[in-house]
């Protein structure tokens, strides 16, 4: 399927006035096509209740048809072997399942460790959004780049950073992936091409754009023919109102950079509902405004995300430019471990809990006889061991010593300058001890 | 292949004849100061400068020095390159020469900024480069400072060596998020995994009635950011040398140029040379007082120096060049010699480079001071448009003369 993305969608103007007669969210007329499958999925918008109480105005359109329904449809259409019509093989399924379970188990352990006083500060957990990370990142090669925000533990794990390194970093130990200097919100890995880990929303998007620029530069200026690295930039719905988002959409489309902008729209920016903050809440529509395809996908379903991701990443690799993918997803926990999470409607949370991506994938694989329960249980046990090992490793690792304080301020420590004695400051033996006065 | 200049030659000669316009018009040709550089070796060159003026401490009015010249002994047989070759060049051309040489040397070096490509740069520092290297290597960006600076950071992290041009340094205020959070911090927060060899450059300072927002001095805003280096160029010689050094440095470097200095003319060596980012430049050795300055104020100081010499003073003028970190060795040696310090800067008074320098000198060389450090900075006002008001905003040579006289009492 070549260039299956519709370049422009016919857009209906959305009614933005809030009155009992006119709902906030108008019916969307044009369908979003689900790529990779034969069927077109209708985007059913549910009218919010006319009483327009606070919680009901946060209503979201109901779900896109679940994958298993699509598969059933396909099955009835073709009567030959059902296995060949499935979206994944057994190996792929197990890989996806393991990655999502790893993400979930890790985050749950983070919460435990936080409340036990092993990690501090702001910790933002990814529970519920695993389908997005797994669906996208598992399609990447080692030399592809991932750029994230502060909700980055699971992106790091999906990209291949060992759980030990991430847990150790969270404990602030010197064996962490950033030597304990970054923390929860600043996960980096040169080996796995994870470019961070950013605390201010939006500031990672230009960095991701830069990585995509390097990829294009290497291909076109340095003439490295084989270089086709793709960059994925992950960020949330709140970021989509930030200037850097729009500026980068423009630049990426302008220069056809090999980047995919992945919006993890979980409807909430701490306590600010996406619908209260955004004039036009449908983020995917902002892609075509800048000259790139905008796609909306059910982010609670890893297989759907994966299908969209395949096309977006392939597009970027072919040099056709960027894509904006809006993943409708949800975080089961609060914004961070310090967030009491009182504003969100329990009914909304329940609705999304029912769409837990791990449960959904499990159901799919078992119903289609890809795996049996025992295999999945084995994975879960293995992951538990990985997590426990990570915690143990973190516990045993040493805390950074004083000498580490100044080591990484400059790549070239001559940047500390020349001292009164004429020698470079960094030659001062006290410098490495961390007691030098700079 | 160009050869790195060897030999220790220290010559600073200032012609006293040419007129100097306080607004920075045509200035006398300044012969350059050559320094021995052993690549980026850590051992410093030993620059011993002999001053001929006798009786340095005697400030009798009878000893009038009519020529503001301090001659130096040559340490090596190599004479000043001004005698054997070199070419005359304007400051913006020197910047471009440095840029071009580095782009030839390393294909990963690229330029990003507004109008740097087809337009050649608003001050022509990148003229002709887009034709030579292509539109991707000399990238015309949309007007989105924060994002293209961030893009340069991302490119630097993934292997390129970008140079970001702020059309005016003031525009980089829009990029403060990326400069502070990402340029300065990512090497540290990534535990040393990613380096950011980026150069951010552009014209700043008070020009000629450009209005408040185009006449900003951002040195003070950026100086506290950990992880970056700041340098200010003031002559074609050091502009080219610092540009090359900044590009070769693995650290993020902010290179401050001045709007009014782009048309300075000087003869620079034909051979390749790179200056040190951390060292200060001795402009005029002296005995009575140390005057520390940088960028355009160097010329106001040198003009004041002429008057001072006529009045019998012997000021030592140092262009600190490295705004962060300070070269405490050169500065310290000078303080130990003269025991009096005057700082002349264009930065604002509050929290400016002068303020930091005052603190650093007080901390390190307190015992050597015979008088409190005086600091002449610009007024803490948004630069007015009116010419007269603008003139009073920045430090003028007359004020420098008065300050020296007061300090030397």
Automatic annotation (TrEMBL), chain A:
The keyword Lipoprotein does not apply. Its cofactor is thiamine diphosphate. It is an enzyme of class 1 (oxidoreductase). Its EC number is 1.2.4.1. InterPro entries: DH_E1 (IPR001017), PDH_E1_Alpha_Subunit (IPR050642), Pyrv_DH_E1_asu_subgrp-y (IPR017597), THDP-binding (IPR029061). Pfam families: E1_dh (PF00676). The keyword Oxidoreductase applies. It comes from the Eukaryota. One of its GO terms (molecular function) is pyruvate dehydrogenase (acetyl-transferring) activity. The pyruvate dehydrogenase complex catalyzes the overall conversion of pyruvate to acetyl-CoA and CO(2). It contains multiple copies of three enzymatic components: pyruvate dehydrogenase (E1), dihydrolipoamide acetyltransferase (E2) and lipoamide dehydrogenase (E3). This is Pyruvate dehydrogenase E1 component subunit alpha. It comes from Nelumbo nucifera (Sacred lotus). The gene is LOC104593397.
UniProtKB/TrEMBL annotation, chain B:
Keywords: Chloroplast, Metal-binding, Oxidoreductase, Plastid, Potassium, Pyruvate, Thiamine pyrophosphate, Transit peptide. It comes from the Eukaryota. The keyword Plastid applies. Residues 89-264 form the Transketolase-like pyrimidine-binding domain. Its EC number is 1.2.4.1. One of its GO terms (biological process) is pyruvate decarboxylation to acetyl-CoA. SMART domains: Transket_pyr. CDD domains: TPP_PYR_E1-PDHc-beta_like (cd07036). GO terms for molecular function: metal ion binding; pyruvate dehydrogenase (acetyl-transferring) activity. One of its GO terms (cellular component) is chloroplast. It is found in: Plastid, Chloroplast. Its main location: plastid. It catalyses: N(6)-[(R)-lipoyl]-L-lysyl-[protein] + pyruvate + H(+) = N(6)-[(R)-S(8)-acetyldihydrolipoyl]-L-lysyl-[protein] + CO2. The keyword Plastid applies. Its cofactor is thiamine diphosphate. The pyruvate dehydrogenase complex catalyzes the overall conversion of pyruvate to acetyl-CoA and CO(2). It contains multiple copies of three enzymatic components: pyruvate dehydrogenase (E1), dihydrolipoamide acetyltransferase (E2) and lipoamide dehydrogenase (E3). NCBIfam families: PRK09212.1. Tetramer of 2 alpha and 2 beta subunits. This is pyruvate dehydrogenase (acetyl-transferring). It comes from Nelumbo nucifera (Sacred lotus). The lineage of its organism: Eukaryota, Viridiplantae, Streptophyta, Embryophyta, Tracheophyta. The gene is LOC104590786.
